[in-house]
User: Fold these one by one.
Assistant:
Number 1:
Amino acid sequence: MDTGTFAFMIHPLDAGYFARKFPITSRLPESVMEAISRRLPPIKVAPIRGVESVHNQADGWFVACPLTSRQMLGLPEDLVLRKIIQTGRMAEKLGARVLGLGAFTKVVGDAGVTVARHLSIPVTTGNSYTVATGLEETRRAATVMGHDLGRCEVAVVGATGSIGSVAAQILAREVRHLTLVGRDPAKLDRLARAITGHTGLVPRVSTSVSQSLSQADVILSSSSAVDAIIQPEDLKPGAVVCDLARPRDVARQVAEARDDVLVLDGGVVQVPGDHVDLGFNFGFPPGTVMACMAETMILALENRYESYTLGRDLTVAQVDEMERLAAKHGFRTTGFRSFERALSQSEVDQIRANAQRRLTTAPEPRRTAILPGRSEPQTEVRAGMAD
């Protein structure tokens, strides 16, 4: 096969990125820095080299749209899309034959459809492989923490988004107790009915993060919130949370206040190749990337230049196929990571021991009734929760 070429689009999550990258800007107010970033051109960040499987190899580039997460969601949509499309055109000029969208570049507007229409190369959001890896890690973590996935309480936060929706459909084939958590009761009800029609399972639906998660043993979270929506007090001892959202759904305070819950950085994978050089340090161990980046690499290794995961209608078949292609080329999930830090087996064992001790001594929590297939009458929507 021909050597594949690709690009992956990133952006600063907040204005603090500029201060870390360019210390001279550290004293500028955030509003000033964001005003400057609106006027910055797309940025070629770094080349990506050494991606190699037994079947092919691929080279690529990181390109950056200079807008922050807050700007992505707060500025006029047409302005944001223009900036993303400009960045995509840079990827075209570099020679990329497929473009992956990262973080909020794949959330704005119609989830990449408009961007792809204005470019001469295909576009993917990477959400198919993100779901596959998130589910793999969730299953593994549930087992480690002593949960039987088929019997325990499982919740999906951001269930009406593209990631949450298909993850919920796949989980519904494996679990007995499933709660769908989101902002829009009508969308939740439609998803619940679809799941029932395909699997026979009748999920509960909820618009309250705190009430639904207080009963959950296993949680997969993938909202489009700008700010964290899962707080320390929301979780029961022994809970497993796989956080696929970027920015995170789980508040950092959870790591500080709760030593009895296992929070995972979902979707982190090892890239095949003995000399992988990503050219850019984004906080992961060498040779590892987010699953959405990996999907772009997989398409390049396959010389499959098509808009694979685009829009908000992600399918179970896409997730299953991308999981198979990832295995073919040697991509694999890493060990457990939590808040950018690898967890040792002894740390995981201690979390489980802490949870068992507190479950033994804690009084039985008061349960809130959530009717299957019906949104609860009392609605709680935390600021920024988008799906």
Note: The CA atoms of residues 100 and 147 lie 35 Å apart.
Number 2:
Amino acid sequence: MDRVTVTEASQVSEARRRAVAIAQSIGFDETAAGRVAIVVTELSTNIVKYGVQGEILVGTYEDGTGTGLEILALDKGAGFPDLASALRDGHSTGGSAGEGLGAVRRLSDAFDIASRPGSGTAVVVRLAGIRPSSSDAVPAFGAVTVPLKGETANGDAYAVRERADGWTAIVADGLGHGPEAAKASEEAMRIFRRHQDAPPGTILSAVHAGLTHTRGGAVSVARYDRDRANLSLAGIGNVGGAIVSGMATKRTVSLAGTAGHAARRIQEFEYPMRPNDLFVLCSDGIATGFSIDGYPGLARAHPTLVAGVVYRDFARARDDATVLVVRGDAA
């Protein structure tokens, strides 16, 4: 995802310019790009007005709901004491030329927001691309993935493959950061795609064997079985996972080592996981104690919004950061 820090009005135009450029690169026409410009202007102006510090993250999405552009606005400001009023069309956020968050929601193909007084605000917007989104479909997963500030190459990577009986997911964190770390994680994704129908332990073994010519990294592979209400996970290194079930969080186990270089053993661990539960998988750029227990109702939010809040509140400044959030069952 492209990331723009927003702390002052002069950065609004930069956020808008970069978002429009990404939209045009994936085929958005002039009208659709204009929608992007309005949405990003409103969201970034909102951060300047109400956020102590904030970011605009822009990336693309492709899942069962469609394809298109995804925008996250994250801040650690005062939050909205009256979210209903802030979302009312015509209620301008920060005196911008548009009509505030109400206009953003109206222009969006998908919209979700989390805001609490004293805890900041997070907004996710999806604008559909060539393949229109289905308004009735619920996204099975969402993610935030950004490189270390100052780097253009992201040493983290993730993938999710939906199956008839559930899904398979992977997060790879190349050792260190920069281009060589990115080569390791990209190779892990290539191997994953070739073996994605195998059990998690088998996939991880293939990744471990295939990363010997790279600097290696931490990798976790998970498989959700809908019929068994079960999650199987195999991991090497510090890609941390958790199953969020109601107000309870169960951490998953990843064994010590470096994929591609040192792994004493590869083992699958199994955990009960209900259809409405969330599985959260994070690279080492997210603090190991990440949790959404202190955010009432967030577990029911759009998966990308959940990922955005975890990233905002638990990211470390010294590494690439990835948060992948997958629902047990999107049906």
Note: Residues 2-128 form a domain with the Heat Shock Protein 90 fold (CATH 3.30.565.10).
Number 3:
Amino acid sequence: MATKKEVTEEFDRISTLKEVLETYEEIAAARMQNTRNSVFAGRLFIDELNYVFQQVKSSYRDEMLRRMRAKHTKDPSKLTFIERNGKTLYVLLSSNSGLYGEIVKKTTALFINLVKEEKADAAIIGRVGLELFKDAGILTTYNYFDFPDNKIDNEALRKIIEYILQYERTFIVYGRFENIITQKPIVTGISGDPLPQEQTKTKVKYFFEPSLDKIMKFFEAEIFSSLFEQTVFESQLAKFAARMTSLEQRVENIKDILKDVALEKEKIRHRIINKKQLETFSSMRLWSQNG
């Protein structure tokens, strides 16, 4: 049977843990709010920009194929202004620590399935995703990049972009914020290519000024980086929301535990009072008998 001291110490320990988790929850909520404002401000624009990028790349491909047919050449090397390796790359945006609920595990599971189905190369950002990937025993080429969970490291971002630019097709797998309760894993292309499972959308007729070549060069050199950076922000927002929700659930569980401990503490207090009363009555009876 637990003593009063043991129960009191347990109550104090759990209360301290509750306060710590509530502090982390407040930090996650603040970060989520700050990140949500910037993500929502750019989400629609970036989504539309990505769609236009796909249309521009498709138009450029069609134009280059037309020129190749006209010149009776089969050299496809001019389809891009950046030297590519002809391969497909999937990039996982995970995390470096826990307390993010299930979103990181779900995102990694989607990433693993895509890499296996497409037989593509893999790039992993975040230690948790790396460990989950290793545990899955996937035999494929992969590279790992360290990146902070709660901020943008421009130097690390530059190195990642330099690496993925060599690939012909690049798809990012990350968690996307839907609302405070719901975050879901998704995959999006940032190299101007539709997803493998997507049907080709209806082409839109564009007039390019000053020229299609210059527009394509601009998209490949500048827009690519913006698309990738937006996915990083999206991933961070989903993780902050997941962490806040996870911590809130843990706090609620701890409150229930505290109620049980407080009840046990009260029972011990009553037992002590009853024991003292019995001892008092025994003393009174003893004095009465002696008198």
Note: The chain has a mean pLDDT of 79.
